[in-house]
Design brief:
About 40% of the residues lie in helices and about 20% in strands. By secondary structure, it is an alpha/beta fold. It is globular and about 55 Å long.
Length: about 450
């Protein structure tokens, strides 16, 4: 590894937001929004979008704890919880449906978790039919589900296909037995391939594999092995994420220590080893952490400059209204965010009282919205511009002073007010975004900065 890369890693491998939103969640101000103003924001965005929306449903239950996971989850083997939870989600959707002036046009449904296939196939079908009843489904809809192969049956895949599901995301992370033991997720390649074969049998048009680099006891060799196995079954796209070590947030990560984790230099080598293998196999790098074949809609969206990013990651859908249902889900009306209660009992109690179960949120200012657009341009198109007409001149001057440092390190080029990310800079895109994060720099404190995982 060159001395330049070592120096850059020492300089920039710092706690940095992942920018699934702007402002990022630690800087939301729940005082700016309440249930009434959130509902009004939904109605206004629904009207502006001609009734089109996307739906994210959080399915929090898992039979087994994967220690690397920082998502909201509830570990249980009691499947009796399924019925009450689905009933509550449908009641929450009913609250939203009562707001909407016309039948919605559903462009996306995404089932995330947790382990969505913890629920029986019949219960998932009941959930989906309850959501789509009386609604219109977009001709080019994307209905997707995240699956854990160990808890997924052919019945799940078949019955979801029958109600419109056409995308599947299969969690793998790594096939190395030592890594799998450390993260408490023992999963065979054969079982993974079987689930993908079912998806192809039932005509799912897009198959994604989730991989992670930087896991405890992981090596470049294990990354090479895992990606080589995945290339052999050629999914349509691959999400190759950097492991987020946040043990203060996710207690399961305390099963191992930072001494068990690869160094920044090792993570850099893991990522670029994986990237080289994927590109040699015909996958194109999309955004920060995605790879797609040329025939995948994600590649097409990126090539046409229409790639978008939201709480569900990179997406081809440009809809500015996402309704999040279920515990901890986040909704987005473009000019406002709203997050649900994070505990199942509190969530169900509020919904059963006829209330939206909001626990956090933020109403974006005009400046927030402009910076949000700039962030998306950087993360989706690797370029943006800043000017003192739409943004505060002092903010612009401060941002450029930070960006000049990145320019000196070869991570961006600056021409007048235009910023272009260099090929090297793509690996430091989170750091580059932080230069225009007004909330981060206005409110910087050790407590909040330590809420983020490291950048590399």
């Amino acid at each position: 590894m060159s001395a330049l890369i070592v120096n850059l890693l020492e300089k920039y491998d710092l706690p940095t937001p992942r920018y699934t939103s702007y402002p990022t969640v630690p800087y939301w101000d729940f005082e700016t929004i309440n249930e009434s103003s959130w509902k009004q924001s939904v109605i206004e965005r629904f009207t502006a979008e001609n009734g089109a929306l996307c739906i994210y449903i959080h399915c929090p239950f898992c039979e087994n704890l994967c220690t690397f996971c920082a998502c909201t989850k509830r570990i249980t083997k009691n499947h009796e919880v399924e019925t009450d939870y689905i009933n509550t989600v449908l009641k929450e959707w009913g609250i939203y449906r009562a707001l909407l002036p016309t039948a919605p046009v559903i462009k996306e449904i995404h089932l995330g978790g947790g382990t969505p296939t913890f629920f029986s196939a019949d219960n998932l079908v009941r959930l989906v039919k309850g959501i789509t009843a009386g609604a219109m489904i977009s001709l080019h809809h994307e209905f997707s589900i995240e699956v854990h192969p160990n808890y997924t049956t052919e019945e799940h895949i078949e019955k979801l296909a029958a109600v419109g599901f056409n995308r599947i995301s299969v969690g793998v992370q790594d096939f190395d037995p030592i890594v799998q033991f450390a993260i408490n997720r023992v999963q065979s390649f054969e079982r993974t391939k079987e689930v993908i074969d079912w998806a192809r049998k039932y005509n799912y048009t897009s198959i994604n594999i989730d991989l992670i680099y930087g896991l405890p006891h992981q090596t470049v060799k294990s990354v090479d092995y895992s990606i080589s196995k995945i290339i052999g079954i050629m999914p349509d796209r691959i999400a190759f994420y950097s492991y987020a070590h946040v043990p203060w947030k996710s207690k399961g990560q305390r099963r191992y220590t930072e001494q068990d984790l690869p160094s920044a230099e090792q993570k850099w080598e893991m990522y670029h080893t994986g990237k080289d293998l994927l590109e040699a196999a015909g996958f194109f790098s999309i955004g920060m952490d995605h790879f797609a074949l040329r025939n995948d809609p994600l590649f097409t969206a990126a090539a046409k400059g229409k790639l978008h990013r939201n709480f569900m990651g990179y997406t081809t859908t440009q809809s500015k209204l996402i309704i999040g249902l279920g515990v901890s889900s986040i909704s987005d009306s473009w000019n406002a965010f709203a997050q649900n209660e994070k505990e199942v009992e509190a969530y169900e109690e509020k919904v059963n009282q006829g209330k939206l179960p909001l626990v956090n949120g933020h109403l974006l200012s005009e400046e927030d919205i402009i910076i949000r657009k700039k962030m998306l341009e950087l993360m989706c198109q690797n370029k943006t511009s800043l000017d003192s007409i739409s943004l505060n001149p002092d903010f612009v001057a401060t941002a450029f002073s930070k960006l000049r440092i990145f320019e000196m390190d070869g991570l961006v080029t600056i021409r007048e007010n235009k910023i272009q990310v260099t090929p090297l800079g793509k690996s430091f895109i989170r750091n580059i975004c932080s230069a225009i994060d007004a909330k981060l720099w206005e409110n910087k404190s050790a407590q909040r900065v330590n809420a983020f995982s490291k950048a590399i």
